[in-house]
Amino acid sequence: MKHRTNVIRKSAVAVTAAALAALVAAPTAAASGARTLYAAPDGHGTTCTVVRPCSLEGARDRARTETGRDIRVLLEDGTYHLDAPLRLGAEDSGTDGHTVTWTAAIGARPILSGGRAVTGWTQNADGTWTAGVPAGVTPRQLFIDGRRAVRARGEACAASVCDATKTGMTGAKATGIADWQRPTDAEAVIRVRWRNYHCRIAGVSDDLLTFAQPCWTNSAGGTNRTGPAWDTTAVDSTRYSGVAFFENAPELLDQPGEFVWNSEARTVTYLPREGENMRRAKALTPHTEQLLVVDGAHDVTVGGIGFAYAAYRRPDTDEGYAGMQAGLTLTGATGPVDHAGRFYTKPSAAVTVRGGQHISIESARFSHLGGAGVILEAGTKDSSLSRSTFTDLSSGAVYVGDTEPKPDASLAGERNTIAYNTITRSGVEYTDSVGIWAGYEAELTVDHNSIDHLPYSGISVGWGWNQPEAQQSVLRDNKVTDNRITNVMEVAQQQHDGGAIYTQGAQPGTVLSGNYINRSAFGNTERDGNGIYLDEQSSHITVENNVITRIGYKWVSNWADYGIQNTARANWTDTAAPALAGTGSVMTDNRTGLDRLPAEALAVAARAGAHGGPVEQLRTDLARAGTATQSSTEGTAGAGLALDADTNTDTRTLSEAGAWWQVDLGATKHIRQIEIWNNSSTTTADFDVITDDGTVHVSGKALRPTVLDLDSRTRTVRIAVPGTGRVALSQVLIHP
Question: How far is 499 from 506, CA to CA, in rounded Å?
Fold first, then answer.
């Protein structure tokens, strides 16, 4: 009884002895007429009272016997270790206008966990620690005291060494893989434009590597299933630049925080970070794939529950991870011809809702996941995900809808809402995934979400590119409003051709409004990474009243002439962009080229997101009022184009000895920072920045932008090539 008294205290249930007896006899909230049941991590039986709680399944089964009233299942504090998901079906729905609610007890923070403990660590002579892994468990991810470890990884391998073809790859000797003890436990991780591939090595023969099938075939071109016929982003395409890294080999285990899995010995070996003691550390690996599945239910609310350590097992099989877009993959050895992504497969998620109606998930917590957070699919309607947090996910946070452009009415996603959620650091492992993905949805609302630090796009709505089977779809009347999207398209993750908000397909009535977008693809190495990206057939979309700053490429991109009747109006941004393409598309009343955000824009940005927040004010640009000159000019690419507040226009000198570009500020100024935006071809490299106070040399290519912090008093700033070459710039900003 002492243990249960503690649970009562944790749940903030203050009762007298008489009231407790009443609770035991009849756990009903008389005032509301609701039936209240209790579950606990160590619950059992069928009573489901506060002092004799049930298991999750026991509470579910007891709830099925209740009718004609609201039902509340209160989860007491603690971790619920699941070997299989809690499944709620049609029989678990609210009836006769009532609702079934699964929620945390007062003061409790219950967690549904798919994790398995890894114990029995022994220290090795080299400072690593090794532990056996329970049968049936494959530790693709490992968390030490709640902190994600990294699968041991090596360096990048350029395409000139690791040359990929439809059947395999060279480079086994140069990379040392030919001499590894167990190369077949290792994987190649490859990033090509917006795609991410993870394929396990199947064999080594001399200098040749082969990979598990069908992973490699599905990652290569020529299957007629990997997307549009024009696609050039497969591992054997001209856009392939090499392997980002190989991972999961003991020969690569050389950095604190790394681990390696040995499938033959069934052991995991870990090199601790400073301060970690493996005799006391809590090591967990995700094992159970799904934690909650709601299938065909209606009028169900899930609130205040945590979901952690759910697994995503497919990448560990021969299927691997053949990423196509936004975290969806190509699976199966065979399948129908598909150029529109109709048969791509979503990742596994901690919570999946299929065909649900009036399902509400609120104030939930998603963390340390091997896959995604939430999927709403297969005709889920009138449902919502709100005020929840997502952090440290291997894949994307939220997936809404499906990839069929003309589904049966029962399978159409309609009137769903994703609002006031906070998403940080999703896509940790599968870097092509996005924060919030929506396929063919109608009347979807994505509102007041905060999204920060993602490797690829923040919000993606629509599907199908411009393929014939996808040109007419159910997409319409979607709203992406008042979201805060910062630090996405992270340059270090090498995923390109995306945006903070990304769309596809004709979407009559769709509006993107009131969003604050800052630092998307900032510091980019290529001419891509956008604020709002109306890609491919995106049509009939209105972009208005957004604040979009510090973008690596275009604040709005609408390049395809078959994307029609889009409107961008009354937005605030610090650069300009080319006119929208496509018949009937217009840009009007946009406030571009700003070097300070006005009060109205600051107010819009400040209230965007789940909780509002700070706004990065733009910094005054001293260069804008200066006079630009350069050593020579190629064609019409004059020096002044670096001062026109447009990061999409370029200067360019001839290739010559000592080529330079310069701005005269008109008087000596005290400057603190210089931003140098390389031109669209990233021409400028290995250059000097010269002020009246001295010279700073920059090695390698200039970024978009390269930012130099300095303390100088100068009238001129010159960017010069010490040897022979060109100087080409899209923008130079000088801040006081």
Answer: 18
